[in-house]
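pls design
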């Protein structure tokens, strides 16, 4: 009888260098995944498109539409709470029915500004993320539609081309049911970087709006292009530049302040914010007025305070007869 003895098996060890390589691969993969999510347009709309407004709009058939780049203020968010409160109060004073906002922040430090605005104004709303990602970097910003009237068939689109891997430009839109008939509103914010990309994004916007609906349309936002630029000149041929129609001799500057605590004499330097009207010939829709708003600071206990580094634009339209 043979006695067979067996020696214990040796455990195969991974050399320290291989451990370091494996760890590096895992960390690199996690970093790539994280970077891919740092700044992405949203995958869906968020908000309360109907049933949240406490008022249903004007009885006279007038619709007041306001557009403003509210300045998200990332990363410091200086005086954001004060500015949000000021924006709410001044929108109430202006008696706006529809508000189209750009650079609306949401995140850990900024709070949920879309909800703050909607609740402060008792309006229906739709929000769409354009940049950032509150899950990945605890901050994002996007476009916002606020409305006393019901919002239907909301949608979004990313304008092409993107200005960079972490910069996306989008358009948010919805149909608005008014007593005089339906119209469609669009809010957008184009790149402030390469003017060639800005022009291409403008073309992308124009094509998208043309094919989106047969309803009369309001297209508003921060276009980051001057009135004399080829892209804005093209839009002015296709659509009605509301402010220019009623203010042919006024410069209409809307941008941009360097100091949000400067005195009222602080001048704006260029016009890059617009409200356009398209397709009004297809419906009973009349443009009655256009004016610049949010063009003065407010006096606070801490001195002068501007609501944003931009002025806004507001139009009044007559829907129906």
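designed seq:
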């Amino acid at each position: 009888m043979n006695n067979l003895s067996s020696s214990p098996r040796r455990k195969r060890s991974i050399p320290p260098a291989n451990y370091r390589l494996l760890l590096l691969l895992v960390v690199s993969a996690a970093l790539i995944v994280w970077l891919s999510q740092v700044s992405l347009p949203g995958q869906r709309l968020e908000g309360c498109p109907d049933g949240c407004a406490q008022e249903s709009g004007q009885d006279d058939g007038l619709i007041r539409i306001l557009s403003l780049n509210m300045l998200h203020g990332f990363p410091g968010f200086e005086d954001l709470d004060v500015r949000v409160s000021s924006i709410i109060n001044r929108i109430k004073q202006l008696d706006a029915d529809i508000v189209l906002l750009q650079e609306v922040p949401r995140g850990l430090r900024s709070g949920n500004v879309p909800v703050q605005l909607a609740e402060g104004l008792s309006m229906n709303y739709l929000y769409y993320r354009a940049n950032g990602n509150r899950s990945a970097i605890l901050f994002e910003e996007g476009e916002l539609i606020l409305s006393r009237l019901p919002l239907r068939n909301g949608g979004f689109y990313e304008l092409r081309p993107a200005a960079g891997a972490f910069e996306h430009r989008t358009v948010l839109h919805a149909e608005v049911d008014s007593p005089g008939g339906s119209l469609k509103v669009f809010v957008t914010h184009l790149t402030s970087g390469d003017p060639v990309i800005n022009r291409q994004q403008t073309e992308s916007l124009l094509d998208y709006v043309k094919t989106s609906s047969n309803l009369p349309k309001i297209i508003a936002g921060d276009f980051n292009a001057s009135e004399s630029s080829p892209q804005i000149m093209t839009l002015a041929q296709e659509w009605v530049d509301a402010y220019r129609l009623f203010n042919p001799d006024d410069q209409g500057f809307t941008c941009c302040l360097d100091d949000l605590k400067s005195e009222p004499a602080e001048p704006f330097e260029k016009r890059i914010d617009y409200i356009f009207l398209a397709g009004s010939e297809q419906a009973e829709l009349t443009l009655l007025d256009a004016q610049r708003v949010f063009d003065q600071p407010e006096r606070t206990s801490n001195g002068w305070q501007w609501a944003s580094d931009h002025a806004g634009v507001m139009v009044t339209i007559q829907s129906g007869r």
